[in-house]
Amino acid sequence: MERDPNLDEENRQDEEAAEQDDSLLGESEVENEETGSMEEELDNERQRSAEYLEQAKRARAELVNYRRRTEEEMARMQKQAGERIISKLLPAIDDLDRAIESMSEEERSSSWGEGIILVRKKLWSSLESEGVAPIDALGHPFDPSLHEAISMQEGANGATTVVQEFQRGYMLGDRVLRPAMVVVGSPEDAPEPADSGSNADENGPAEQTETQNEQA
Predict the structure, then answer these.
(1) With contact defined as beta carbons under 8 Å apart, do 166 and 182 qualify?
(2) 147 CB contacts (<8 Å, ≥6 apart)?
């Protein structure tokens, strides 16, 4: 029996169509696999980027904290160094005060006497510009945070007023550089408290100390 050529042609076309469908299906599967692989790789890169960003943020925060701690430590060390230097200058102020107090009027008006007074004024001006101020003690209530009692006036049990000052105390800002060494006694024996404006006197506390010693 002779085969129908039209049927053969249709079968051939069907087979080619099926092969094309299989080819397209294969290409689609490959494309899907490649797309899935790219999306997975993209997700991995995004995750790594997020991790790197978090690490960068932590590193920046640590750097900021380190700089802050370093600056605070430097400021603290500078402050302590300044306090030590100023504290070492206080005995020089004491010596100059005693030298000036022991001078007669004639000696004060002499060239060397005026020189000593001028040196004392300049030194005190430098300390004052750094925030140093004398502690007012005479006539004020005894304050253990500002004063150091070396004795108590005889018969003045329970008294809490500073009646004599042996060594002037000094403040640096709100910190006590050196407490005032004082004698505590009865209020009626205490001199009038020093005027708050007297600290700004160009002679500093030297003139006040002389007056205190005269009263003692």
Answers:
(1) yes
(2) 135, 137, 162, 169, 179, 180, 181, 182
Per-residue tokens: 164: 């004599």
Residues 155/130, Cβ–Cβ less than 8 Å: no
pLDDT digits (tens, 9 = 90+) for 3-15: 555 555 566 666 6
* N residues, the chain: 216
The pairing of strands 132-134 and 170-172 is antiparallel
Q: Are 177 and 90 in contact (CB under 8 A)?
A: yes
Q: Which two tokens stand for residue 15?
A: 């087979």
pLDDT digits (tens, 9 = 90+) for 124-137: 999 999 899 999 99
CB 186 within 8 A of CB 153: yes
Largest CA-CA distance found in the chain, in angstroms, rounded: 159
Cβ neighbours, 10 Å, residue 163: 24
